[in-house]
Sequence to fold (222 residues):
Amino acid sequence: MKYPVNEIFETVQGEGHFTGYPVIFIRLQGCDVGCAWCDTKQTWIVDPDMQVQQDTVNKPCNDKPHWAYFTANEFIKTIQENKFIAKHIVISGGEPCLYDLMSLTSELEASGYFCQIETSGTSVVKATNSTWVTVSPKIEMKGKLPVLQSALIRANEIKHVVAMEKHVEELDILIEGVDITNKVMCLQPISQQKRATELAIKVCIERNWKLSVQMHKYIFID
Ligand code: SF4
Fold:
């Protein structure tokens, strides 16, 4: 199995439960969800004309829509050649669950890595049982894809972007019937907006949920 990759780089996790942990980010190319405020629009299309050599994508992509194919073994080789130290791999996108991630996550785990997937929940999650699944549900976006109940049930963490009360209500409707007892629930204010941040703090305190503030945007890193 080979995966189209937009960028691979080492950084610290900026969002959600693992904020602050050193991670290796693998951003897969391809997404059909269509969020208006998407900050990785370069990942939407797997354009054959934008295919490049592997060594072009082993660094931040600077918003370029290029991509290269990698097998699981080639990921591990690239990680070693780049002397990346982190043992936590974040498989993001784009929408990583467009792809069957079972072989990738199992081979990375066999090599000593902890895997986390960041998904919109609009595709079936195919990964090892020990993979940490973060679902950031994208509700009624342009692509008109429903958020799958199976993805919400599989999630270890549900991280929801909020701007106004309406978004909290949408989340409540979405998770009706999903047992969230053992899940990490995070609210993330959109685009560092003050009102959204105040709302997220209020709801997090009321519900004993976690605030996710996109730390990387405050400390100006990728
Ligand atoms: S799911 Fe993620 S990559 Fe896809 S459009 Fe939405 S924010 Fe962008």
